[in-house]
Specification:
By secondary structure, this protein is mainly alpha-helical. It has one domain. It is 58% helix and 6% strand. It has 7 helices and 2 strands. Strands 1-2 form a two-stranded antiparallel ribbon. Strand 1 and strand 2 form a beta hairpin. Helix 2 crosses helix 3 and helix 3 runs antiparallel to helix 7. The relative contact order is 0.14.
């Protein structure tokens, strides 16, 4: 049986009841998601666009983490492993390396470029993305 809240959201977002479940594990503020969705897509606030925005926010956080780690790098104090990590991080651009497909329940996200570097150096960030969105960024 469909909960009244799910029915209301399905009607407001012009989608099916199960499509609403795409947002159930989202830990970001829905007010913030909706505000950004309206900015990006006008009044076209629907499940696909909300998930797009949710993914963008998560990718922003990955990008920030990479930038922070690059800034914190001290070449004079760095070990060989730290130098290798720094050089690898310089190659990454999450906006280009991570791709997604949005079709309601068939929505997915994956690393398209530099998979091994994301797995090796950014596993915590990929785990956080999952924690915040409910979607795992595939590296397969």
């Amino acid at each position: 049986m469909v909960d009244y809240r799910e029915e209301l959201l399905a009607e407001l977002l012009n989608c099916g009841y199960y499509d609403v479940s795409l947002l159930k594990d989202c830990k970001y503020s829905f007010g913030y998601l909706i505000e950004n969705c309206k900015y990006a897509f006008g009044n076209d606030v629907n499940v696909n666009n909300l998930v797009r925005i949710m993914f963008e926010i998560g990718i922003d956080e990955i990008e920030e983490s990479i930038s922070d780690r690059i800034r914190e790098y001290d070449p004079e104090q760095a070990s060989d492993d730290e130098r290798e990590e720094h050089e690898s991080l310089l190659l990454l651009n999450p906006r280009e390396d991570i791709e997604s497909f949005h079709n309601y329940l068939d929505t997915s996200i994956w690393v398209a470029e530099h998979k091994e570097l994301y797995e090796r150096y950014l596993q915590d960030e990929l785990d956080r993305f999952y924690e915040m969105t409910g979607f795992e960024i595939s590296t397969d």
